[in-house]
Amino acid sequence: MELSKEKIISLREKVERKNSIFKDKRYLDSLFLPSKIIGREKQAEQLIQYIDSLKQGLLVPVISVYGRSGAGKSTVVRFVCQNMSDVLSFSFVNLRKAKTVFGCSNLILSELGSENLKSAQGLNKAIDCMENKIEKILAEENKKFFVLILDEYDVIFSDPRGRPSDFVYKLLTLEENLREKGLWLCIITISNNALSEHDLDDRVKSRIGNSEIFFEPYRQEDVFNILQDRAKKAFSVKMDTAILKLCAKLSSDDHGDARRALDLLRIAGELSDGKKLTLEDVDKAVELLQKDRVATIVTNSSYHMRLVVGSICSLSLLSGNPWCATSAIYKKYHTIISKEFKPLSYRRIVDLLVEVENSGLVVSRTISRGRYGYGNEYKLKLSPSLIGPFVSEEWWNSVIEKKKQLDELEDIKAELKSRPRSLFSRPLFRSSNFLKKYNLDL
Ligand SMILES: Nc1ncnc2c1ncn2[C@@H]1O[C@H](COP(=O)(O)OP(=O)(O)OP(=O)(O)O)[C@@H](O)[C@H]1O
Ligand SMILES: [Mg+2]
Questions:
Q1: Could you tell me which of 274, 265, 352, 369 has the C-alpha nearest to residue 312?
Q2: Which pLDDT score is estimated for 219?
Q3: DSSP assigned state of 348
Q4: Which residues of 1-17 are buried (b: 16+ CB within 10 A; e: fewer)?
Q5: Torsion angles phi and psi, residue 339, rounded to 5
Q6: Residue ID of nearest Cα to ligand 1 atom 13
């Protein structure tokens, strides 16, 4: 088939027809800052209280906002600060793209409108530049309070050579320097785990205090309310309550995740015929989202972690038992690792399994093995045939082939049991190829 001018016109018409279900798709974009926040009053009040205490001279240098993904942390913090901009200046920095602690400081500098530095210039220089910039902004805006929001703050703990404690310590020094000049700085860190749960030096821990705000996962009805509000603005057709309820339910099965719910609704809308959204469109959207998520996790994992995931996929498909013991996974990992690589130790594989669990691909349970003590077992949250191909398409096809052979063998065994005498009368069993294929020693 060739592309022609007419073809483009008809494709454009098709896309427009499909998109006509949307009135304003922005409302389903997870980066969109809504003008209305549903609920979260408790967290907003806590935040306002902490920020306001600066005015009374009570210093809260660091506020740790934490909770699971899609709980509204970034949205609520930004919303509160925007609506307090009569008394404070703020800067919102997303650190996700930074790979190192120094990269984080450059992202902060960019957001403050300052030039990036070279790592050779050092962290102290970066902190000095931040101080100058914040002073300048406050002078220009004639304000005294500055809030530095560091979103996805967990990043600083994944730089293997960076020293997260030093970075936090230096930020605290920055805050003290500004205070000596009669200016107030408050740092809000946003992450999945509370700051106090991370490994920080005692000198830092005692200074940051414990000003924490927890965003518990949304309940199903909270997600439904958020969806209802957005759907009204985003779609040109009235949305069925059943559709919104299904999206809310599907995104609250694990933990109430408003982002996932909005993504689900948007993708289902894109998959619809442009006139009406159906429950089947939502089912298809779930599958697509799952695939996307698995692809992102697996393709961004290290080679060994991919093999660990592959081992669990292979074991659960071939054995038919979804729970796989650590020792079985380790054994399988050894059989599939390429000869060019040195296998990791048992201990490292145990660590990798924790990482795989944190990524959300598997769940674990501890079981008693009697006199052998306790052991862990892992189970995939999604079907192995959905995850396996992302580990390696070619390898996964060979696992499926093996599974077919095993199933055939099982059928034959069952037949042998039921008709033992007819064994050699059947031509299939006389074939030497067949015997070779299944390695049968008859
Ligand atoms: N209470 C709310 N009212 C309206 N919209 C909300 C609310 N909570 C979340 N949302 C919407 O849900 C989406 C996800 O929220 P947000 O990005 O704030 O989550 P998060 O807690 O920062 O997640 P992550 O940890 O993954 O960054 C956004 O599109 C946001 O607009
Ligand atoms: Mg966020």
A1: 352
A2: 94
A3: H
A4: eeeeeeeeeeeeeeeee
A5: -65, -25
A6: 259
Q: What per-residue confidence (pLDDT) applies to 376?
A: 92
pLDDT digits (tens, 9 = 90+) for 36-69: 899 899 999 999 999 888 777 776 789 999 999 9
**Residues flanking ligand 1, CB < 6 Å:** 30, 32, 34, 37-40, 67, 69-75, 192, 226, 258-259, 262
Residue 193 CB: number of other CB atoms within 10 A?
Answer: 14
* Residue of minimum CA distance from atom 26 in ligand 1: 69
27, 37, 38, 74, best to mutate for ligand 1 pocket (most atoms within 8 Å of CB): 74
- Residues ≥6 apart with Cβ < 8 Å to 329: 308, 311, 312, 315, 349, 353, 378
How far is C-alpha 331 from the geometric centre of its chain's CA atoms?
A: 29
C-alpha distances (whole Å) from 170 to each of 127, 130, 131, 164, 416 are 7, 11, 11, 10, 75
Residue nearest to atom 24 of ligand 1 (CA): 69
If you measure from the C-alpha of residue 75 to the centroid of ligand 2, how many angstroms do you get, rounded to a whole number?
7
**Successive 10-residue mean pLDDT values, the chain, 442 residues:** 88 86 90 88 94 77 92 96 93 90 93 89 92 95 94 84 85 92 93 84 80 94 94 92 94 88 94 89 92 91 94 94 95 93 94 90 89 89 92 94 92 80 52 53 38
Regarding pTM above 0.85, the answer is no
Can you read off the two tokens belonging to residue 110? 């960019």
Q: How far apart are the C-alpha atoms of 92 and 151, rounded to whole Å? A: 7
Structure tokens at 160: 């293997």
Q: Are 47 and 80 in contact (CB under 8 A)?
A: yes
